[in-house]
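Narrative summary of target 7.
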Amino acid sequence: MRRLVTALLIGLTVATTVSFGAVLGETFMLYPNIFHDPPRSLVLAREFMVEGSPSDFFPPLGFLIILTGTVTVLSTWRSKAIRWYVLGAALAYLCFELLFSMVWFWPRNEIMFVDPVGTHSAEFLRATAREFVAGHWARVAGGALTAGLLFTALIRWLCSPGRSPGRSSDSAGVTAVERDRRTAAAREQAP
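Modeled conformation, tokenized:
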């Protein structure tokens, strides 16, 4: 079970860190180009993102994170040392990446990138773009929180006394290897 939890924590930490990094990449590389002069820059963004866009990358990654996160929460629930870190990360991801996206970003994406060009006034598109960018910082914070909590859980898990053979611990948290070392040292000092 320890190997499974370790693999889940590593995989989920990597996936959420990639997601957070991709959001940062959007923030500093794509968004300045997309939102600098709406509605003209929105039209250029539509023309540019024909073969691939964030909507091709984030939904599959998000599904993988939610699926792996659910299994990880269930697998780590009995570990008091990391339970709340993993659950907190899962809730942060669900709130900031899924629910907030559904409520805040999806309607604005529809307006800016799906509705036919000319459907909305230039001022309405500028206001929508400002709202999108303002809300985006909540998503950046949520991604940082999620990745940070999972990284903390992973480190705590890896540094906790193992439960596998040769690494079992007694009630004081001393590993079998450490206990054997202490016993040998005590024998050497005995008269």
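The two ends are 44 Å apart (CA to CA).
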